[in-house]
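tool_call: predict_structure(chain=1)
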Amino acid sequence: MKLTENLKKEWGNRLEAIVLTTVSGGGVPNSIYATCNALYNDEAILVANNFFDKTLKNIESGSKASVLFITKDDKSFQVKGSVKHYTSGPEFDNMKSWNPERLPGNGVAVIAIEEVYSGAEKII
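tool_result:
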């Protein structure tokens, strides 16, 4: 699902760090701050796997994901969707183009945008 022009503008106005949440097979949530992230083709959010541990295990167990971001205007948005992890391919190559060279970039989490909320309001 593609982001609307307004939501792309909000994404562009976000604070650097996002919160990525996944869930283990046993239902235990895990949240991380991630500063190495990008919008991809208006349909997915990429998060560089620089130091994933529980996050990677959760993705491999079939977890869905939630991304929380806050804009510089103090608006919050939550993006929900399925997530996959890649160590090669176009999404991985894209991540390598913006992930700082000093970080390992072991892989990339690709969160397919399925739903977007601002507070309790469902936008997509």
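agent: Residues 90-98 form the longest helix (9 residues). Proceeding to next step.
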